[in-house]
Amino acid sequence: MRILLIVNSFASSVTPRNIVLVHEHLAKHHDVQVVETNERGHATRFAQDAAARGLDVVVGFGGDGTLNEIATGLAGSDTALAMLPGGSTNVFVRTLGIANDPMVALTQLMAGIDRNEIERVSLGQANGRYFTFHAGIGYDAAVVEQVERRSSLKRLVGQPLFAYSALHSWFRSYDRKYPHFTLNIDGRAIPNGFFSVVLNTNPYTFVGKHPIHLSSAASLEKKLVVVTFRKMTTPLILKTLYSALRRGGLETSSGIDIATDVEHVKIEFPAPFPYQLDGDYLGDTTTIDIKHCPEALRLVRPTIDF
What is the pTM of this model? Predict the structure, then answer.
């Protein structure tokens, strides 16, 4: 097969040594070209070029942001994506059951390629940009923005930086008194949104080895799930964390709205609000248009039982 290996050498788990090892392993049986990203959007352009040249597979080696860019570049094409864990969290990779060790993950994915375990899966799309596992609107986007302000520490510190940013946003920088947006979900209006997550997969994220489950209804084989917090109180968030960690998901309540099997979401407000896709902060906006895109991406499924 003709393979393009896209490497983000700045990702927290990517080292010169394992780049060489990954390249050598791929090149044993395939025609492999290696490129490295050095700016935002670079991986998307590399992926688009690979699709235009008709390459068989793009192997991404980086974090969730790199994954998002490559998926955006490959969406709608016949070039398949295989993703190796190179970031601090690697949500999408771990959701697929892929090991969090790059070399073990490579063995799993190459076995999937050899067995032709490649299938089309759905993506979400927000304001024209694709996402693989979730879009976050409001509070969690503010947390990601805080993390990116300290991006030089992300490689060294990892998940503790997310914890610090979450606390900083909760107690100091994010307004929890007034709503930030309204939603229209497949024609159903939801006012007073403080924080929403549009899920294409589940779990929402990981804390160490522990998955944070918001809704088991979210899956690559299904439509989107929208979880909206209509108030932001400490008791509600603590209850949410307990349910997400211990009970495998949330339930609709007076403070939380959960919509499943969603095709289209429009989110808007007169004042700008923050949003992120797959952990990549994209700034503030007054309107987000989100839709479900079935069979948008060819994905290499890992072979776990080899």
Answer: 0.91
